[in-house]
Design brief:
Blueprint (H helix, E strand, L loop, with lengths): L1 H7 L4 H7 L11 E4 L4 H12 L5 E2 L7 H11 L3 E4 L6 H6 L1 H22 L2 E7 L21 H16 L3 E6 L1 E3 L8 H11 L2 E5 L4 E2 L1 E3 H13 L4 E5 L5 E2 H12 L4 E5 L6 E2 L4 H10 L1
Parallel strand pairs: 1-2, 1-3, 3-4, 4-5, 5-10, 6-9, 7-12, 8-13
Antiparallel strand pairs: 8-11
Length: 285
């Protein structure tokens, strides 16, 4: 499946440019990571280790502040990638207090701990902090979370900005990878088009900004290696309709399923302006 996902989502030009950049051994002395079992966490580990960097994986509960302080004191990282989060939107909605504890309170504790120890803090946030818009969302736009998940991640952003001066907040837009479940757009389409005779895609006019998970992890690694600070959209910078994605997947699979695009319902769009990302990467390469 991954070849299909990669064919659907080839590396954008800024990732291709980064691929030609070899990170110096001094880029990371001892990178640390939470959320190493997640899609992005696994990909980040692969990129870091491929670059010759040993990664310290979080071995415990990020909500246990005493444990986290002890762990960070023991390994003494120069950078902490904080990817751990409660993500499924339906789960967050139904378990809001628990999600807030993980996505915001634990994040605040880690941000404060990193600030006290001089650790550069990389926080994986989300495009869910924005409201849908017919125009590309910029980092400076007013924030209006589209989900309970977005609310908890925005609370995490506020904590990071307040408590840790040396930080990078990556607002990650949609991404895909083979290991995602059927509830995600692309893997769900692939599995349905491979197994069903007729596939109806609802909300086909809705627009998304989607990258491969590899490219997001790779981009965040390079931004962190250069200690890029502030809030940066991590995105392709262009909208693609759900219908376009379905048609492309159908073509790549050479599927015989009858594909029906249902444009009724939501026509919302959520895509990012990646000008700041491109400017940052261009200035640092």
């Amino acid at each position: 499946m991954d070849s299909i996902v990669r064919q659907l989502l080839p590396p954008p030009d800024f990732v291709k440019a980064l691929a030609a950049v070899k990170l110096a051994p001094s880029a990371f002395q001892r990178p640390a990571l939470t959320g190493q079992r997640g899609v992005l966490g696994k990909r980040l580990q692969s990129h870091l280790r491929g670059g010759g960097f040993a990664v310290a994986e979080c071995p415990g509960d990020i909500c246990d502040s005493s444990f986290m302080e002890s762990w960070l004191d023991r390994i003494q990282p120069d950078v902490l990638f904080h990817f751990a989060a409660k993500v499924p939107t339906f789960w967050v909605t139904e378990n809001y207090s628990e999600a807030l504890k993980v996505n915001a309170v634990a994040t605040a504790g880690l941000a404060k701990t990193c600030a006290q120890r001089g650790i550069f803090f990389v926080y994986a946030s989300t495009s869910h902090v924005y409201a849908p818009s017919a125009t590309a969302r910029r980092e400076s736009d007013p924030l209006s979370p589209i989900s309970a998940y977005g609310e908890t991640k925005l609370a995490g952003e506020f904590a990071v900005r307040r408590l840790c001066a040396r930080h990078l907040i990556g607002r990650i837009f949609s991404f895909s990878a083979e290991e995602q479940s059927n509830s995600y757009l692309v893997p769900g389409l692939i599995r349905r088009l491979e197994s069903e005779r007729e596939v109806t895609v609802k909300n086909s006019l809705a627009q998304r900004d989607i990258l491969h998970a590899d490219d997001i992890a790779f981009t965040l690694m390079h931004l962190a290696a250069r200690r890029s600070e502030g809030t940066i959209n991590i995105c392709a910078g262009r909208p693609t309709s759900v219908g376009e994605i379905a048609l492309r997947v159908h073509e790549l699979l050479k599927s015989r399923a009858n594909l029906i695009l249902d444009g009724a319902g939501s026509e919302d769009a959520l895509y990012g302006d990646n000008s700041r990302l491109r400017k940052t990467l261009s200035a640092e390469n």
